[in-house]
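Interim report, section 4.2 (structural modelling).
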Amino acid sequence: MSPILAKLAERFESVTWEESHGQDVARVPGENWEAFARAAKESGFEVCADVTAVDRMRSRPERYEVVASLLSMSHRVRLRMITAVGRENPSVASLTPLWPGAGYAEREVYDMFGIGFEGHPDLTRILMPDDWEGYPLRKDFAVGSVPVQFKMSHQVN
Amino acid sequence: MDDEQTVKTEGGRPPANPETETLDIWVAGTEEPEFHPTDEGTQELGPDESDDRLDDQFGRVVADDYLFDDEVAEEERTVLNMGPQHPSTHGVLRLHLELEGETIRRTKPIIGYLHTGMEKTAEQLTFSQGPTNVTRMDYLAPLHGELGYSLAVERLLDVEVPPRAAAIRILMTELNRIASHLVALATNGMDIGALSMMIYGFRERESILAFFEKTTGLRMNHNYIRPGGVAADLAPGWKDDVAAILDDLPKRLRQYDDLLEKNPIWLARTKGVGVISPEEAIAYSITGPILRATGVDWDLRKAFPYSGIDQYEFEVPVGENGDVYDRYRVRVEEITESLKIVEQVMDTMPKGDYRIGDRKITPPPRARIDESMEALIHHFKLFTEGFKVPEGETYVAVESPRGELGCYVVSDGQARPYRMHTRAPSFYNLQGLPIAMADSLVADTIATIASMDPVMGDVDR
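Predicted structure of the assembly:
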């Protein structure tokens, strides 16, 4: 573990650390999400490279995971911070006030998963139409299909 | 009456009558001209005669940022909609421009017109079908998308590709970087009015695409780099083709320099236009040539080397001012550096297999299927249900022509990814567009958009 990560680990006892295929992963409780991100930024992670989410459905007690990939250019270290977000009114603190670059990514997560970000300056749909119903990347959002005229013969009446 | 009219219109003017015609000039002595005594006061330039102010008034200062008072009435602001169908938006980018006169005060990019749910599609495709999907995201750099995806899947599988496969990947992706930058130069030139540049850029790109077609079978959307290696070995005689590209392109780059470097119009339209500062670029997660043009020396090929690129020598070109000109310059120099890498890969191409020998991941050679029952079973299993990837998650980033192209793959132990997310560089770089365009002129809009080089397939996915 890199020294700047070791310092972070000392400060936050509630954070569990993992190694996933050689990459450092910090599992942060939702209430510490912003404080941990702030501390990470102060310790040298200048760039929030990516924010995304995973819908875990029933395999985990909390349905969603919000995943942020941080990058420290000065130390050449990457850190992935993950927080679990519950099923009812999923919401987590926004990273946009810390890293403006997370703005579009959080809008995309909101658009695709319906996860809210408290403190985001402009949390609106970004890729889907404004009047779209549902959140497409949730696992219970069906893929949908278009009827095809020429299918296998037994499927056609 | 009729006759008179015919005469009048003859020759386009009425006939001259010397008696009634008055001359519209003042003849000296006919009347007294009004006399204005010289007033020294009216010749002053203004109350503020400091050097800065005078430089400004004489037009010696050319600034991109215009200072306006914020107290402008609402009705003096114009909202201009640009796109999604506009020749200089490089696809279906739509911009809301808020103008005061000809000055852009605010810009809001509106995206999603090309959104096709490719991350959702990726969950329906097996890991071996995945590259067909990611290759269509950034369609100008398809091989980088495939490389990022394949590296992520290989990391989850915990396999290492043979040296030849890694070298072929670097050869192909660096050629792809050249091809993509050539399009960026071509469209940048076209948008500003250097039409020859458009023809030249696409002409040179064609020679690289011809090589891609020979190697992968397709000019774009190759599905060539796959988990476990590459789809096919390099075609016989590939060295001659690459050598021809290496021989030709430096000459062409010198031609571009002759065309643009001393062209006053090109310089006036690009220098000091669309400036992004290094702090802004880092804050807004901007990567790639746009970040390097601001002077930040950051390249994932140096910082987090992938696929053995650290064994080749190359420089990372950086700019100074972060304007349109520096972005153009960084791209031109990156082409030169990529040519260096391609040359080194060509000279040191290792022998061996172009994919791993594990038949649970890569299909057996076609000829073996006729001879071996096991080969047939492996082939059948791979192409019906695919290979299973152990549970886990990983994020792998490669340096695409547009910046950090990351691939976040989550597997739950099945043959399809549980979740596949692409960190699209154009999507993040687009956040820099309002910053680059704030307080600049409408006329600079298209120059700035072109220099950001957004690929809407990458933005919207």
